[in-house]
């Protein structure tokens, strides 16, 4: 069974609750090796490095 609300929620109260569901742009930083934009604490997809060390060999 579902919960039965005690009082009616108005449209404005309901919509205020849903107002914060919005998309945000991902944070991007420059790669320390090649200078391409990548996400922080993630391996660079262009050169395959993380923390200035080559982790994966990338084919051109």
Give a concise summary.
With about 60 residues, the chain is an alpha+beta fold. Helix content is about 15%, strand content about 15%. The chain is rod-shaped, with a radius of gyration of 23 Å.
Description:
- The chain is α+β, with helices and mostly antiparallel strands and 60 residues long.
- It is 13% helix and 13% strand.
- It has one helix at 11-18, and strands spanning 29-30, 37-38, 49-50, 53-54.
- It has a two-stranded antiparallel ribbon with strand order 1-2.
- A hairpin with a 2-residue loop joins strand 3 and strand 4.
- The N and C termini lie far apart (57 Å).
- The model has no long low-confidence stretch (mean pLDDT 90).
Q: What is the secondary structure topology, with strand pairs?
A:
Elements: H1 11-18, E1 29-30, E2 37-38, E3 49-50, E4 53-54
Antiparallel strand pairs: 1-2, 3-4
Spans of at least 5 consecutive residues whose pLDDT stays below 50 are none
Report the structural category. Answer: alpha+beta
Largest sheet: 2 strands, antiparallel
Which strand order spans the largest sheet, edge to edge or round the barrel?
1-2
Shape: rod-shaped
| Mean pLDDT value | 90
Primary descriptors:
4 strands, about 60 residues, two-stranded antiparallel ribbon, about 15% strand, about 15% helix, alpha+beta
């Amino acid at each position: 069974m579902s919960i039965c609300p005690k009082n009616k929620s108005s449209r404005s109260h309901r919509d205020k609750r849903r107002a914060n569901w919005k998309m945000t742009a991902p944070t991007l930083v420059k790669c320390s090796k090649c200078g391409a934009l990548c996400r922080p604490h993630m391996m660079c997809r262009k050169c395959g490095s993380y923390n200035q060390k080559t982790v994966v060999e990338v084919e051109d």
